[in-house]
Specification:
The chain contains 3 helices and 9 strands; from the N terminus they run H-H-E-E-E-E-E-E-E-E-E-H. The chain is of the alpha+beta class and 141 residues long. The termini are far apart.
Length: 141
């Protein structure tokens, strides 16, 4: 096998492995067991991302400028840019499966979404992103 082809194959294998491992550690893979997207968003939608937003998940997993979130009447829809999608199928998580609360760290304000009643995967987003998605309006007082 020619050396350039071997390097290319090694790079692709490593890329796929790292993307899949990130999905395992962050909890995305766990969520995909029950919440794989089956339909398009219903009703009025609001989207944020993928660029200029960072989303933090379980075990310090974070997705910076590669995640798109869409808030619809029926659910929260999540997807990752195509190049990073190995192990990250698009998700559709019904609102009844999401718990929400606010938190602060230093002078930054965040919203913590706990995804899945059974899975309980934490997702931390900026208050700015939550406002753009209309999630602040759904928060309990």
């Amino acid at each position: 096998m020619n050396t350039p082809y071997a390097y290319a194959a090694f790079f692709v294998a490593m890329w796929c492995s790292v993307c899949f491992l990130i999905s395992l550690f962050s909890g995305w893979f766990t969520l995909s067991g029950r919440f794989k997207k089956q339909s398009e968003p219903y009703g009025e939608t609001r989207s944020a991302g993928p660029f200029f937003y960072t989303v933090y998940m379980r075990y310090w997993g974070h997705y910076s400028s590669i995640i798109r979130m869409t808030s619809a009447e029926d659910a929260l829809y999540l997807s990752i840019l195509f190049l990073f999608r190995i192990g990250h199928p698009p998700l559709c998580i019904p609102w009844k499966e999401i718990q929400m609360r606010r938190t602060k760290f230093l002078w930054f304000r965040f919203v913590i979404l706990t995804l899945g009643e059974q899975e309980r995967i934490p997702m931390r987003i900026s208050e700015r992103m939550a406002r753009k998605l209309g999630i602040l309006e759904r928060l309990p007082n």
